[in-house]
Protein 1
Amino acid sequence: MNDHPDAPAVRQLRLVVEAEDYEAALTFYRDVLGLPEEAAYSSGDGARVAILDAGRATLEIANPAQKRMIDDVEVGRQVAPRLRVAFEVDDSRETTARLVSAGAAEVAPPTLTPWQSLNSRLDAPAGLHITVFQELATTEEREKLDGFGTS
């Protein structure tokens, strides 16, 4: 029970991904993308998990029309499955190149979006379809754009 009405009810978002090639996925997300390992657990029967720190987490809920629009803007066609994982980075171009060198398949190169971010799409280890994005404008600057708002 939440005793503090102003405190968030959820303290952490944790996305759990099953990876057939655990070592390759761990190397890609921890060592290449740069998500620090927060904890790791294993058991005698070969079960292993690593919890990687991805900074601040958000859950983006989009209706089908928005999902189609984002695919059209970022890729030019419908490619994303129902679940896509997005990572904010400091340099989309450099990160995209590094991830492709490490085995990700580039679906679309860094593309300027109407909401002023530079977004690329990749098919990455563990079967994830990911976006790497770099914010080029502040929230205040984006609020002045058509179709962008906060509540």
Protein 2
Amino acid sequence: MDCEQLVAVIGDAVIVSDPAGAITLWNAAATRMFGFTADEAMGKSLDIIIPERQRQRHWDGYEKTMATGQTRYGHDLLRVPAVHKDGHSLSIAFTVALLRGTDGAVTGIVAVVRDETARWTEERKLRRRLAELEASAVTG
């Protein structure tokens, strides 16, 4: 199996970062999703796609994962806001896996990311409409 080709052509963004949070792999889907080319993203901090108000929480979790070698997001989908190169907000969902060296030490994290902005926006509209209908039923 040609894993390099798989990562290149898959529709979901595949992003790998090292233990310090520097991007070491950025596929074409990540470029489409976030607007940064691989050349622009490689070696940069994950901060390029993390909204400023979320960074502390992100890095607290990232550092804990690096220290413990464990993550609960290998199977559980994590839904968080993200930011595009042009500054607009995204809603993303992803899972992560820890990459390990031959000695078992964590060498990085791979995230498989999907843009769920359209779905999230539609759900928000539906929730708002439901609340309006419930409110009118109570007062009607």
